[in-house]
Design goal:
Helices cover 27% and strands 32% of the residues. The protein has seven helices and 20 strands. A six-stranded antiparallel beta barrel has the order 1-2-3-6-5-4. A six-stranded antiparallel β-barrel has the order 7-8-9-12-11-10. A hairpin with a 2-residue loop joins strand 16 and strand 17. The longest helix has 51 residues. It is globular and about 105 Å long.
Length: 415
Amino acid sequence: MLKNMPELKEIKTESLTQGLYDHTKTAGVKSVVLIIILALVFGIVGGVFGGIYVLKNPFLQKYLGLTQNEPEAVNQSIILSEESAVIGVVNKASPAVVSIIITKDLNRLLQFNPFFPFFDLPEANQPNVQRVGAGSGFFVSADGLILTNKHVVSDSAASYTVITNDGKEHEGKVVAADPGNDLAIMKIEITGAKFLELSDSSLIQIGQQVVAIGNSLGQYQNTVTTGVVSGIGRSITAGGAGGFESLEGVIQTDAAINPGNSGGPLLNTAGQVVGINTAVDLNGQAVGFAIPSNDAQKALDSFRKLGKIIRPFIGVRYIMITKALAETEALPKDFGALLVRGDSAVDFAVIPGSPADKAGLLENDIILEIDGVKLDKNVTFAGQLKNKDVGETIALRVYSKGKEKAVRVVLGEAK
């Protein structure tokens, strides 16, 4: 027995060592597996947070070469944004835009027969009502007030039919015309009309996106065109068969404005009116003009307060002086408004009995300033006058008979 003890002890020691070895081996494998799993987990988590960080860091994106398709994605986003803006404007504004159809009894022109009773013209007694024109307008109140161009509704012998966006026809009545601008107000019998808000046109900027809506060519109701503000404060002479009119401070746009668009709104991307489409230059491409909404707001305020549109009147006929004109005519000043007589005997430089006449202004006088503002190629006489009110006293700086003098004029009401 004693001889076998060491052997047994050795065997036990060996077995214990082997057991410890086996246990250590198993624990080591488990540790390796655990480390691998933890490494994978931390790797994934780190990759996610690292990816998010890279996405938020343009510099790393550029460094890692991940911005190759960025312009395409950005451009697509811009296009979608612009499309959404225009669609939003159209959806908001279209219900408030109207078409104006102008009709006239052409046989009324034949009702005077100089040969009667020798030759009768029976056909002249039969109505011959025909469509003679078309334009646009838009509601500015829920009870049917419509803002449009004066030249659209200037024929007192014509009848006007207003077609709303839902296709219904209404008899339109002209309730006011602006004596100093191409603006007019119509009224139809309606309640709950969708109407547009007039924005502050002094805030518009060149390059700003705009949308025009109107009865294009008198055939395509509520046609939508888009463009930008191309210029601000333009001075133009617009007209047609009904005569010509000088317009100051108008907005230029490349949004297509066609015949029939006159009187329709020019809108910003918020769906607010920035201008009233009024004219297009047929000598160019996409050169249209709109009367600023601030002018329209002043006319509308006047009508709501007084039942008519009033504008200040001074009573002079003038031409703005340029450096070229000053050199050609040897004028003593190369800026200002020169008071000149017209071709007709009644085209006075200073209208007799007018505020200017009462203040002592004379033919060939040069108005240099209005209320301290110098008149030149950028600041016109009419542009300054339209911001004044009837009854207001203005201070003029005038060059007359070789001397400069101060003149005060109380503005009258334009007829």
